[in-house]
């Protein structure tokens, strides 16, 4: 496969991101204009297109571009890619109008099956020269977590038919899926790509330090799932396990930072790339601090009772760490150019909406009065995000 094909695939992923952002804008505008649509159905469409259209397509394209033997796999990979697009388009035209119903469930199920085919295809066609790559080790673990996360959606059908949607197991299945998607699959895949960049520059990574990092990160991924169970008011040991998971992730973060801190200049990053990386590090640290806090019963209850904190945390992870991480590698490998101007519009929208969402959570918690026009201002600030993404797409009209 040619470089241009991968550029096209990344462009398609960014188009999904724009669609997801516009659906998010529509949701933020719902209470202002009293639109006549089913809010929950559009939430389903927004989340599926954001996770599976934007992040999944972008990440699987990057992993294939870096680690797979192109000569042995290009035709089969193209078929997998376009089958994936068919399932995504199916979800896009069914979820907003029927929510979880027959056709949307069919397309979601087909997506899962095609994603398994991708994992099998990736594993079978790894370029032999990367066999001992530490970046590949992280990418493989990420794909395993992606498959593990899919147990959540498979369980939903059985839970709906037996215990019903009001059961705690219904929410736990959704949280299981989300947790292993973003903490396992997405973040670990991005770490794998970062280490791949490092290895391509011929820079050594201590095997001993990497082993400690890899074990603590994976331990953190597994144990921090218990953070998603604390709303059920479980026994004391669940809080202990969740806390240990948060500490393990923090330790992994410290080890990663220690491995690369003084050698970043050797990666030949541009000023924009340094800006991306600094932002990811700061947001990653905030995420880890929030995880450490929510392992404590008081803050765990806060996260449950004030939904804005949860929404803010999820957006911090997806719009912040994961999306900006994808921007960094897409631009670094010239698959999709991102100018400082378009990025700043996007980041301004992200930063200001996050500030307002967390402020609303604080206001509910502390019983402050919130200003009257906050819904209108939130919708207006949200507009900056699709504006920034649209500018990126305009700047990349024709693959160079």
UniProtKB/TrEMBL annotation:
- UniProt organism field: Allomuricauda ruestringensis (strain DSM 13258 / CIP 107369 / LMG 19739 / B1) (Muricauda ruestringensis)
**Keywords attached to this entry:** Membrane, Transmembrane, Transmembrane helix
Write the protein's name: Cytochrome c oxidase subunit I
- Residues crossing the lipid bilayer are 12-33, 45-68, 80-97, 103-123, 143-160, 180-198, 210-231, 237-260, 280-300, 312-333, 345-365, 377-394
